[in-house]
Write a structure and sequence with these properties.
heterotrimer, A alpha+beta (381), B mainly alpha (279), C mainly alpha (303), A: 381 residues, alpha+beta, Rossmann fold, OB fold (Dihydrolipoamide Acetyltransferase, E2P), 6-stranded mixed sheet, 5-stranded antiparallel sheet, 20 strands, 34% strand, B: 279 residues, mainly alpha, MetI-like fold, 11 helices, 0% strand
Chain lengths: 381, 279, 303
């Protein structure tokens, strides 16, 4: 496809390190298969995300990395060492729990220093390390407090500091931002990324929140029903989803069934009955012959105007059914002559009241879609 | 990690042996032909027959049963009132004192409750001429008093776990406080009322110490009779009596838990089905 | 909003508070006041057998003086507290692993095993004591088994025909532990069951072995359960009257028997009242202090 970045299987050239290597790992609980033959490599110092909805197997995979579960089959290597049969307390892996799991009977200081307690380490060295961690997460003034005396964001930072104190080879973060409110998430997101950069420790984040995964991670593995559906950079996962599932899982998307009419060089023409036109789309490298397929395009890639645009293909006419105003943008639902609905995102880049572009109920509008913005999938449902 | 270590498993096994060995031994020897309770002399049900011929035991059992039924019922009414007052009436004057008084018999050794209640009865008899003799009424008052505190504990813990907004919803929909109490609060806590009553009933049926202070001549409850008999030595008819009690309790508990389990399973299935209906 | 307050209609809501309140004042508060008052009276040969001093300061502390000087009271107090302490520790040692084990078994097994803990509650307390009397007697199979085991372990010179268990202090402790074990297990289980298991995982993740996880996390966090269970065992066993009367050494009585004796046999009401007040102070005052501390800790510890 057009984007050269997408073709390279190992973006930023990191996974080739194979610092963490998961080989064909499966985990079965009775008759239920939670993880079904997952293989992936994670490079040293990478910030990697496992993204999926609940029950997709991401947490089980994380728990196998931590050592709380043993794989039913397959192997896990960390820094070249096979982890089979190694107890959680002997692994160079630490975890930041979703609930934070701070010890309620210990102060912040004691919590952070706990992992060092059972290591043979001089007390002064231990104190120094705890102090350094407190500085890292900016909680120096809170050292003597108990967890219940901290805000949600502060607890989250204590949990992070505690997990980092032992300087693990791998840090696992289970829904690290899940318990924070929206404003705090944004700020914490950058903090985690900064800390990861400063410490150089490999982070694996498990999350069901695509925004969290996209902003934090350098690469994302999208999991579904125990298997990895796509593994790529956030940008590629969004712009070049490998399947209809990934396209609809990440972000919002208009999906239409279609039929391949012909292939014309780099382009493919797809008849879409629901829209009443034949859409021209960028051809996928492996697309051959005729057949049913799925056309997809994201709401924000659709250009909407009240005048018929000149010289643009892929133009369809519709009527504004309704719209939601979100401030920075608006989401329109446009009804086609065929009764099909198309969702369109329009940026409100002009002041409201200036109704140059803003369409309203019952307005007739023209939608045009750049062929490069149209994705086609053969895994038609 | 749900793993049971060998150590815990061994300790549990030993613990249950400790809890049940004497009870099983008691049941086995209730079928002993020999008069000696500890030496096996062959199988026999003679002690059960003997038990049902013993009018003293039957009378005592009947007294205990009547006492337990009445005291549990009165204690449940009083305890439920106190529980509702403590949890739902907000901060009224004397609330702390009421909750303190109610919890006192729970934390006092029974011998203190017994002695102090007896002193009260004796002084009342002196000052107001009642109770002239100790008997059923004094027993009843003493049993109601300590049973009530257990009922209150059961009711308050259940009631404070119930979201007050369902009662507020009823008020909002136009019910008077009295209707809220009758239509919402009492039905919702009815399982707690039932278990409070059962608790009061068994505690009354089982009480020795407080009864021993507050009963009068001729008012021997079953535990008092057993206590007196056991002080004189072990006899096989007590084994038979004990086995009967164990059997009744075991059957009752098993039946109720089977019913409860079945209800709970049905509930879980309903919840599952309802959740699936969402998709 | 704070729970409570919807129910504010005057009239019959006063009845709902008033009836149990009146009952509690007459039959709970009044007896305690009477006992406290009588402990400052002097015994007389009359009916009722006490009298208050008619001269300033109108109270007599003679009973309390006897309590602290007469060796029989000191002795019985110490026997009671000793027995109760040993019994509490034993209950904890037996009950803790059982309660912990109950939190680690499957849901179905948990239901049955928990029921087996509660079941003895519903049977008669006296009969459970009685069952042990049968087992501890010198001719019982249990005593013989113990004797044989003992004789195997010790040299021939120390062999015994049987082990005297009945009518000893040991028998009292043994039966008290048996009778009150569920009181230890249930609050402990309730506490352990509520503990967040991810804390165990967090500790293990940070490098602690299972036994270190227990010492660092489980044990300190189960302290409220230990204290609650401990009090539920300690208080009734310190005042225990029935068990010592059946299996104990009557020449070395516990405090419950002394109170009962002073009151019933000696008709010394002031003495019985003074011992009661003293026992109340020893047992209930620490409890109240603890409850206060606990509720304050909870108020402060709420997240």
């Amino acid at each position: 496809m057009g984007d050269p970045d997408r073709q390279s299987p190992t973006p930023p050239g990191r996974a080739s390190d194979r610092f963490i290597s998961v080989r064909n790992v499966a985990k079965r609980f009775g008759s239920f298969t939670a993880v079904d033959g997952v293989s992936l490599d994670i490079g040293k110092g990478e910030l990697f995300a496992l993204l999926g909805s609940s029950g997709c197997g991401k947490t089980t995979l994380l728990r196998m990395l931590a050592g709380f579960e043993q794989p039913s089959s397959g192997q896990i290597f960390i820094d070249g060492e096979d982890m089979a049969g190694i107890a959680p307390y002997h692994r160079p892996v630490n975890m930041m729990f979703q609930s934070y799991a701070l010890f309620p009977h210990m102060t912040v200081e004691k919590n952070i220093g706990y992992g060092l307690k059972h290591e043979r380490m001089a007390k002064s060295e231990r104190d120094d390390r705890v102090a350094a961690m407190l500085d890292l997460v900016q909680l120096r003034d809170f050292a003597r407090r108990h967890p219940h005396q901290l805000s949600g964001g502060q607890r989250q930072r204590v949990a992070l500091a505690r997990a980092l104190a032992k300087q693990p080879k791998l840090l696992l973060l289970d829904e690290p931002l899940g318990a924070l409110d929206k404003k705090l998430r944004e700020q914490t997101q950058f903090e985690i990324a900064n800390i990861q950069y400063e410490t150089g420790i490999t982070f694996v984040v498990v999350t069901h929140d695509q925004e969290e995964a996209m902003t934090l991670a350098s690469r994302i593995a999208i999991m579904d029903r125990g298997a990895i559906r796509q593994l790529d950079t956030p940008k590629n996962v969004y712009e070049f989803p490998g399947s209809r599932f990934v396209a609809s899982f990440i972000g919002s998307v208009n999906l239409f069934d279609g039929e391949l009419v012909r292939i014309d060089g780099d382009f493919a023409d797809v008849a879409v009955p629901d829209l009443g036109i034949t859409l021209r789309a960028l051809r996928r490298g492996d697309l051959r012959g005729k057949g049913r397929l799925t056309c997809a395009f994201r709401p924000e890639k659709v250009h909407m105007s009240r005048q018929k645009p000149d010289g643009m293909g892929n133009t369809i006419q519709g009527v504004v059914l309704d719209f939601g105003y979100f401030g920075k943008d608006s989401l329109y639902r446009i009804k086609m002559a065929t009764q099909a609905l198309v969702r369109v995102n329009a940026t409100n880049d002009l002041r409201a009241g200036d109704d140059e572009i803003v369409a309203t109920w019952e307005d007739e509008v023209y939608l045009s879609i750049d062929p490069k913005a149209i994705m086609i999938f053969e895994d038609e449902a | 990690m749900k793993r049971l270590s060998t150590f815990l498993l061994t300790m549990m096994a030993l613990g249950y042996v400790y809890l049940y060995a004497p009870i099983i031994s008691l049941i086995v020897f209730s079928f002993n032909k020999s008069r000696l309770v500890t030496v096996w002399g062959g199988f026999s049900t003679v002690w059960y027959a003997r038990l049902f011929e013993n009018t003293q035991i039957l009378d005592a059992a009947w007294l205990s049963l009547r006492l337990a039924l009445i005291s549990a019922t009165v204690a449940t009414i009083l305890g439920t009132m106190a529980g509702i007052a403590l949890v739902r009436f907000g901060p009224f004057r004397g609330r702390t004192m009421l909750s303190g008084l109610i919890s006192t018999p729970l934390v006092m050794p029974e011998v203190l409750t017994g002695v102090s209640t007896l002193m009260l009865f004796l002084l009342m008899a002196k000052w107001i001429g009642w109770p002239a003799r100790r008997g059923f009424s004094t027993l009843l008052i003493a049993h109601i008093t300590f049973s009530m505190t257990y009922v209150t504990t059961v009711i308050t813990s259940r009631l404070s776990a119930i979201d007050i907004s369902i009662e507020e919803a009823a008020l909002d929909l136009g019910s008077t406080p009295w209707q809220v109490l009758r239509d919402i609060t009492l039905p919702v806590i009815s399982p707690a009322i039932l278990s409070g009553w059962l608790l009061a009933f068994t505690i009354s049926l089982d009480d020795v110490v407080i009864t021993s202070f507050t009963n009068g001549p001729g008012y021997n409850t079953l535990p008092m009779l057993v206590w007196a008999k056991v002080r004189l030595g072990v006899t096989p008819d007590i084994n038979a009596l004990g086995s009967l009690i164990v059997a009744v309790v075991a059957i009752g508990v098993t039946v109720s838990s089977v019913v409860l389990t079945r209800n709970e399973r049905r509930r879980e299935r309903d919840i599952q089905a309802a959740l699936l209906g969402d998709h | 909003m704070k729970p409570g307050g919807w129910f504010d209609r005057r009239g019959w809501s006063d009845i709902i508070v008033g009836v149990p309140y009146a009952w509690a004042i007459v039959f709970i508060l009044a007896p305690i006041c009477i006992v406290t008052a009588l402990s400052f009276a002097v015994p007389v040969l009359n009916s009722p057998p006490y009298q208050f001093v008619h001269t300033w300061p109108f109270v007599s502390i003679a009973s309390f003086q006897r309590l602290f000087t007469d060796s029989i009271y000191i002795r019985s107090f110490s026997v009671s507290l000793f027995n109760a302490s040993i019994a509490t520790v034993l209950c904890l040692l037996i009950g803790y692993p059982m309660a912990l084990g109950l939190t680690r078994v499957s849901k179905a097994a948990n239901r049955v095993l928990l029921m087996l803990i509660v079941l003895p509650f519903w049977t008669s307390f006296l009969l459970r004591v009685y069952a042990w009397i049968g087992l501890m007697g010198n001719n019982s199979w249990f005593n013989r088994l113990l004797t044989v085991l003992y004789n195997i372990l010790v040299p021939q010179a120390w062999h015994l025909a049987n082990i005297q268990i009945m009518y000893t202090n040991f028998a009292v402790i043994f039966v008290v532990v048996y009778s009150y074990l569920p009181f230890m297990i249930l609050p402990l289980y309730a506490n352990l069951e509520k503990l967040d298991r991810t804390l165990d995982e967090a500790a293990m993740d940070l490098g602690s072995r299972p036994y270190q996880v227990f010492l660092d996390v489980t044990l300190p966090l189960s302290m409220p359960g230990i204290i609650a269970g401990g009090l539920l065992v300690f208080i009734p066993s310190a005042g225990e009257l029935v068990i010592p009367s059946l299996v104990g050494n009557m020449s070395d009585p516990m405090i419950g028997a002394i109170i009962s004796q002073e009151f019933g046999l000696n008709h010394d009401w002031p003495m019985a009242a003074a011992i009661s007040v003293a026992l109340l102070f020893v047992l209930v005052v620490p409890l109240m202090a603890y409850t206060r501390y606990q509720s304050r800790a909870e108020a402060g510890g709420a997240p």
